[in-house]
Amino acid sequence: TFSGWIHVPADGVYRFFLGSDDGSTLSINNSLVVDNDTPHSFQERQGDVALAAGVHRFEVKFFENSGGFSLKADMQGPGLKRQPLVGGH
Fold this sequence. Notes:
This protein has 89 residues and is mainly beta. It has strands at 2-8, 12-21, 24-28, 31-36, 43-51, 54-62, 70-77, 80-88.
């Protein structure tokens, strides 16, 4: 589990991308935004959420079933190009 805080610069709809091998979920302010939570090879899913400007809590949960593993989380939105939220191999 990875958790922390993100700062969004403006009110608007933000898109979160979550790629993993195997399963993962991404929540913002305790609400599920991306559900990628099944055993699989690397797969990316995305979800949108309306956020007010300011600071918001995020949580990424990840599990490894077998074989290789990876996790990558990105975000984009008003005033933000796609950028890493958390990632690693």
